[in-house]
């Protein structure tokens, strides 16, 4: 074995070396969790937060949080691909799928900052269908019936998560992030006690629009909030499906708003 080859770390070891080279990453970060569902402006939310010098992370990690070991896994995944922010004090992730379990350890931690977000079914269900028809026409969610089932089941799971949370959480309607962004960003900055308030602009990151990292749409590549919502009129969803989804949506939303320590809604 030559000297040069002996100094080359295997790929599985390299992320650990990245952490060791930056001692501040070995300390404790405060966690930011966004609990939501697919197609709820969550990629935009992540990029707005990730633009802050105080917040590490901006996309969905697709992992569960079972114990403190999960926090090391999060760091390893993130810092393997991203430089360390000198002022970073938060680690962000969003949880959009119920198979990614979050232990009560993180729902009762006074140091954690929890966010909940919902988008109405008239926009969400067609958006899910369009997404999967574009990227995988064989996927179950190309069918409005199955997309609606995911939506309803996920909202009910979000209610259970909020019920388990023993620390205050921030709730916002997804569309407020685009159409009432000044109020959203001001109150989010206040909730997180950021030294530098969040702004409408953000940096397009290495994993922006990448597979399994969130939104693939061109809007996210603009590097700023684009007001309004997309036109999904070409996607037909049966009235009875929307009625059932709306029943779940309004019930869960009212409970989340009522239980929130801070809420921004479009009422």
UniProtKB/TrEMBL annotation:
SUPFAM superfamilies: P-loop containing nucleoside triphosphate hydrolases. It comes from the Bacteria. InterPro entries: P-loop_NTPase (IPR027417). This is Sulfotransferase family protein.
């Amino acid at each position: 074995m030559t000297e040069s080859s002996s100094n080359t770390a295997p790929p599985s070891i390299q992320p650990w070396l990245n952490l060791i080279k930056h001692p501040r990453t070995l300390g404790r970060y405060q966690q930011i969790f966004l609990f939501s569902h697919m197609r709820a402006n969550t990629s935009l939310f992540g990029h707005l937060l990730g633009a802050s010098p105080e917040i590490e992370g901006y996309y969905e990690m697709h992992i569960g949080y079972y114990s403190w070991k999960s926090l090391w896994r999060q760091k390893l995944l993130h810092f393997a691909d991203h430089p360390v922010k000198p002022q970073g004090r938060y680690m962000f992730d969003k949880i959009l799928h119920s198979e990614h379990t979050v232990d009560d350890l993180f729902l009762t931690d006074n140091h954690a900052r929890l966010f909940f977000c919902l988008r109405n079914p008239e926009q969400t269900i067609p958006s899910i269908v369009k997404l999967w028809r574009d990227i995988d026409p064989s996927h179950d969610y190309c069918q409005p019936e199955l997309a609606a089932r995911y939506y309803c089941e996920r909202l009910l799971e979000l209610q259970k998560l909020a019920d388990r949370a023993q620390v205050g959480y921030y709730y916002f309607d997804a569309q407020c992030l685009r159409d009432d962004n000044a109020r959203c960003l001001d109150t989010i900055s206040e909730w997180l006690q950021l030294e530098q308030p969040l702004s409408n602009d953000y940096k397009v990151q290495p994993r922006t629009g990448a597979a399994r990292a969130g939104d693939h749409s061109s809007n996210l590549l603009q590097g700023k909030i684009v007001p309004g919502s997309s036109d999904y009129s070409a996607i037909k969803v049966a009235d009875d499906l929307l009625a059932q989804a709306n029943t779940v949506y309004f019930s869960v939303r009212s409970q989340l708003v009522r239980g929130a320590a801070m809420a921004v809604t479009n009422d």
